[in-house]
Write a structure and sequence with these properties.
By secondary structure, the chain is of the alpha/beta class. The protein contains ten helices and eight strands. α2 links the parallel β1 and β2. It starts with a helix and ends with a helix.
Amino acid sequence: MSKDIYHNITLKVKQEKKLFAVLIDPDKQNFAELLKTIHVCNKVKIDFFLVGGSIITNGNIDNTVHAIKENSTIPVVLFPGNHNHISTKADGILFLSLISGRNPDFLIGNQLLATPKLKTSKLEIIPTGYLLVDCGNLTTAIKVSETPPIAYNNNEQAANTALTGQYLGQKLIYIDGGSGAQQPISNEMISLTKSNLDIPLIIGGGIKSAKAAAEVYKAGADIIVIGNGAEKNRNLIEEISTVRNNFN
Ligand code: 1GP
């Protein structure tokens, strides 16, 4: 299994290229629809799949990862909501620490519980500082983590938190408005954070159009993640990949 996911991300970022990832929520997948989504992702060559979510109830992570691996050569990276959300069939995992919050379970607790399984797996482990920002609604991630998000306009707090993550050794920073956020992270927050950071910056939550994606890239995001937008309109995957290609 590839151990090159992070290496390839940094290579592209060094070349000032933009990356695009599609989040697959195992709870929302009907197999036929998932295959169609995978097909579009293959066609436009997204950079990687994310699989996960804050709460996964009836969905089966293993089956979802398996379906993607059977139908695509694009890397599959886990985006876990807790220590149970691990499939050893994936290629890598964003080993998230919720550094915008002060809940020990999401700073270190779940990570410790996941470690026995991770150490016997071949997953590429990518330490990721994760920040939740209030983008207008109480998202599931905010509820589940029981932490207050960073205020929408508190750019300094976001930038300093991200840089603290970098100083602590995180390899990526992911600023998230949460799944189904009303609006994307602001351009000002993205640009201030990016200007302080030497590691790649992922932005997700509430990106519902190619125009919004273009603004997020322009503000300084290295990687854009979409989830809900792609579920509602598969064409958005093609549209955002065109935006990405225009930057590259
Ligand atoms: C959620 O950033 C991801 O954690 C994607 O968000 O579903 O709003 O695109 P959306």
